[in-house]
Amino acid sequence: MDLRTRTSLFCGVLALAIAASILLRGRLRRAQVLFAALAGDMGLWYLAQWQFHAGRADFWERSTAVLAVLLPQFALHLFDSIVPRVGKPSALLRWAGVLALPMLILVLTEHRHGLVRGAVILYVFGLIAAGLWQLAQRGEHSGSRATQRRVRFLVSIGALAAAFSLADFLWFIGAPLPPVSAVLSIVFLFALSESLIRARLVDLYDILGQLLVSTALAFSLAGIFYVFVVLLGGFETMYLGAILAAIVILVLFEPLRERAETYTHKFFFRERVDLERAVARARRSLVHVLEVKEMQQVALSALEASRRATGAAVYVRDPIGRDFELGASFGPVALPRIELATAHPVFERLDAGGSIAFEEVAHQVAERRRTGRTREVEADERLIASAAVLGPFARGVCLGVYGAERELSAILLIVDDRVEDAFSPDEVGLLESLAVQMGVVVENSRQHRRLQERDRLAALGQMAAGLAHEVKNPLGAIKGAAQLLSDPSDKLDASEREFVGIILEEVERLDRVVGSVLDYARPSKGDLGSIDVNAVVRRTLTVLASDRALGWTVAMDLAEDLPLARADAEQLRQVLINLIRNAMQAMGGNGNVLVSTRLRQERVSVAPNDAPVWVEVSVRDEGPGIAPHVLEKLFVPFFTTKAAGTGLGLAVSQRVVEEMGGRIEVASKPGSGSTFTVVLPRATEPLSVGRSPAEIPAEHGASLSPKPAA
Ligand code: ADP
Q1: Structurally, how many domains does the chain consist of?
Q2: Are residues 442 and 542 located together in one domain of the fold?
Q3: Is residue 672 lining ligand 1, measured as CB closer than 6 Å?
Q4: Residue 255, C-beta contacts closer than 8 angstroms, at least 6 positions apart
Q5: Residue 653, ligand 1, Cβ within 6 A
Q6: Distance of CA 513 to the CA centre of its chain
Q7: Over the stretch 492-502, which tens digit does the pLDDT of each residue have?
Q8: Contact 362/384 with Cβ under 8 angstroms?
Q9: How far apart are CA 509 and CA 95, in angstroms?
């Protein structure tokens, strides 16, 4: 068998194998079926040639001609489905269809005649050349640089394969060339099949990588087969050797493939591997980082060291949450801040997708404009226009760094202005994983700060408690003395009486503050029992009705059949008084407060039989709402925005509710009121062992000092 005959055999088998590999994947779409038909046709064509070269039988010669006539039919339809066409079907497809039948009849009746052969060659290569040309045109007008690059690669290989196949016919006139065309056709088929498998066009690097991996695998597997079948066994035990070889191959296939992939990537795709390493290194280091500043340094220096970016910047959301301030950067001079309002489309898109590659969006605009998707085009154009506020990073990649509640805490901008389309989609995915790790650091640092604050407050609380204790006794003595002085039997004149009155008032106020400090520092667990929260609400509102001023109302919306909660009725009442008075003060004494109760359908554990375990009571007002910077410090002791406030009401309430096993939640937006919700655990035992609301004294309790009415 000469080289040409052998090559035909090899390429025929390979083409059929490629066709089968696509068919075996299932879920066949039109493109897959067309591809399988083209590869099958090519495979048979080569096999027919092989037979023809070997035996020169008339049947094989005729088969070669028939298969050749079918070739452009499958090829043109397949090319047509690779880059989606806009508008009506191409004239080329129609012409090819019209020509197919007469050509078939011609080769079936007379295929040896020189003219017929000439016509077939013209028909096959003419149509394939026209098809490739059309594919190239579509690629050029696709608007996406990546698609252009990949189509160019595909068309070049296809054109080379076609040109060498044409040159093969020189063999007829006695000028034999090496059978390069068959090899190129297989590369072309392989590239096409990879494109179909990955649902996107592959380019030179992808295909080179895949070819190398496949070649390395083929050699290793052939080696295994050779050892078992040829070296270890003779002809009689070949079946045993083959089975053993197959088992060994099955076991080794995956690890071998992974190895081959790792090595080819390492040697041929250095850049991608560099980025992969840099991101992995940064992620590993970030695990031990607690400070946002350090996080920025770690992430940026890793990116800089990878040499895959010419610039990067981290912007961190400011405490008010309005803008993003530059934290750290390298490369081009980054703008000091990005305003949320002006870059709104950018943040909106980030929230939807996690990252934006602006160049990719620009390609999409061109593509979508051609397909008439005007609404998406407008949104994309707005996005690109607003990206201008990112300064030198407007053509790079923008990644969102999210906290635990999916709130955007920071953004990472990366640019490489040396090349276009600098980051492929899977590289953007890699960078996203870095952004996710940065989000974890932001969240951890927040928690860490919270814990530190808690420790600080605990120490402060202990100190304050000691101080309050020291103050409480002399305060009692002062109060007693002042009361003695103000005894009506004493002869005090009016102004002296007024001064004693002032002393008594101030002492009482001080006593309340001292009481609050002690409550905060050493909250008592109270008298925990099963209580009816609705009854506590009713009683609280009755008490408050006495000092209700004109201009505001309190409405109740109490859930029926509310289960009992586990709490101390008196303490809950004091918490509610605090919340309602805060609401009232926030509305400036004018507006409506709604107190409502509800069962919360939320489980504490994942156990399927767990009943919902929370009873909640909410206080909603129509006040101005709470600004984000106030919201952050709401429960910090002594934090107040009021001239005469103590800043202890919410701190103490939270402490007390937490001691009861519950929590206080706040929902507020500036301008649209606030809702404070006390969430309490549902009682497990039905009988109340604590005080019932009716037993609670109507006057203000001493353990929790409610604030004076506004
Ligand atoms: P105080 O009322 O003495 O200031 P609090 O701990 O009760 O102390 O409240 C702390 C701060 O929380 C208040 O100063 C106020 O700014 C804010 N606040 C509390 N409740 C509301 C509300 N319903 N609407 C708006 N702001 C509120």
Answers
A1: 5
A2: no
A3: no
A4: none
A5: no
A6: 48
A7: 788 888 888 89
A8: yes
A9: 99
